[in-house]
Amino acid sequence: MDNLTTRGYTILKEISKGNWGRVFLVENRGRRYALKVARTRGVVSSIALPGRLHEAEIMRRSQRACRGKGVVRLYDAWVEGEDTYLLMDFVDGRRISQLVLEDWKAPATRDQFLRVMRAILSELDRLHTLPNPIFHMDATPDNILVDHASGRCYFVDYGVAQCKGVAEWIVRSTHSAIIGKLGFVPPERMMRDQSDLVGPSTDLYSAGVIGCMLMLGRYPFTFVSQPYSARDFILPPMPETGSLAPYAQILDRAVAFNRSDRFPIARAFLEALNYAR
Ligand SMILES: Nc1ncnc2c1ncn2[C@@H]1O[C@H](COP(=O)(O)OP(=O)(O)O)[C@@H](O)[C@H]1O
Ligand SMILES: [Mg+2]
User: Fold this and answer.
1) The model scores a pTM over 0.85
2) For 181, how many CA atoms within 13 A lie in the half-sphere containing its CB?
3) For 135-160, what is each residue's pLDDT tens digit?
4) What is the structure's pLDDT at 172?
5) What is the distance in A from the centroid of ligand 1 to the CA of 267?
6) Considering its fold, how many domains does the chain have in total?
């Protein structure tokens, strides 16, 4: 990371340390940025890794399409040795997972629920309806940040995103690793059905699971690290009690076991929430 000093950046603190890399808060000429240092080589041999600047390319496409409004902007990206560096806007806020599991520790209020779900689904709708649609593929509560000051939601971590027109990186064989986070990947994908891999179904299912999480104040599933069978993918019906009762059946539909029973596009899911009484 010697190149950072020569480029004029000072590391203020480490924000996150994951399997694939680390994220730092850095400063340059009085401005703060997030710097993601990702190990993009030699991590997993069983999957076809995307190009090393894949994430940067997806972020650029996403921000170009909305002139940088409402998205985490990428300012620079470079490769050095084994690592890829992404310099982007710093979102001063909390992950959805931190909000639900650490801050609230309870079901969301109606306001909290609608604010977060509308933000997620509007952004998915925008990404999915671009001329070259972007499918995030890892829309989990760890990859969506809520800004302290504005309350806006921001997606990060486009490392496994799929986009028509950008060299797509598809799981190499039906026996290789599943992309995404267990519990947020739809059941058919876990059962090696890759038929909608470059399509909206994974993101919409993930958004549904996040909705269930907001409604329950905890993860809706119990198989976080245990072995699982197909039956485990049937999430229990959401409770039709409390202030979120009008949304229970909508969430049940969003995470239905069969893809054909779910919302086909983000806008349909969003409108169902908007019209629920
Ligand atoms: N632009 C950003 N601003 C603030 N925090 C960020 C930013 N990007 C990532 N983070 C934090 O770092 C964590 C890891 O970044 P992410 O891109 O998701 O990498 P990983 O591949 O390790 O999951 C995120 O969950 C988030 O908490
Ligand atoms: Mg992440």
Assistant:
1) yes
2) 20
3) 999 999 999 999 999 999 999 999 88
4) 45
5) 26
6) 2
Where among 58, 89, 120 does a domain terminate? 89
Q: Do 97 and 194 fall within a single domain?
A: yes
The residue range of the domain holding 75 is 3-89
User: Distance (Å, rounded) from C-alpha 54 to C-alpha 190?
Assistant: 24
Q: What is the CATH number of the domain that holds 267?
A: 1.10.510.10
224 and 247 co-located in one domain: yes
Q: What is the pLDDT of residue 262?
A: 98
Residue 190 contacts by C-beta under 8 Å, 6 or more apart in sequence?
178, 182, 228, 233
Q: Which of 71, 75, 6, 69 is nearest to 34 (CA)?
A: 75
pLDDT, averaged across the chain? 88
For 12-71, the pLDDT digits (tens) are: 999 999 877 899 999 999 999 999 998 866 555 444 556 778 899 999 999 999 988 899
Pocket test for ligand 1, best of 12, 13, 16 (most atoms within 8 A of CB): 16
Binding pocket residue ranges, ligand 1, CB within 6 Å: 15-16, 18, 20-21, 23, 34, 36, 72, 88-91, 95, 142-143, 145, 156-157, 159
Same domain assignment for residues 55 and 189: no
156 Cα–ligand 1 center, Å: 6
